[in-house]
Amino acid sequence: MNVKELKAKNPVELNERLTELLKNQFDLRMAKGNGQLTKGHVLTEVRRDIARVKTIIKQNEAGNK
Fold first, then answer.
1. What is d(CA 22, CA 24) in angstroms, rounded to the nearest whole number?
2. Domains in the chain and their CATH numbers?
3. Which single residue of 11, 49, 57, 63 has CA 20 to 30 Å from 35?
């Protein structure tokens, strides 16, 4: 997801996206532990997406204060 798309979302949508990404990260970690994860780069991409969403959330909070 692009940063522009994330900035256009409201805080509720961002929190929903964050929850979705965290669940996805958990599933990928479990698959990696079981040896079922064949594409290891997907886990890295999810981690970076989580960081992007958290950054946008913090920026929105700082801008509202």
1. 5
2. 3-64 (1.10.287)
3. 49
- This model's pTM is above 0.85: yes
Tokens of residue 31, six digits? 């698959």
DSSP string, 8-19: HS-HHHHHHHHH
Closest by CA to 57, choosing from 28, 3, 31, 1, is 3
pLDDT (tens digit, 9 = 90+) per residue, 16-54? Answer: 999 999 999 999 999 999 999 999 999 999 999 999 999
How many residues can be counted in the chain? 65
First to last CA, the chain: 26
8 A C-beta contact, residue 43 and residue 28: yes
Q: Which two tokens stand for residue 9?
A: 């979302």
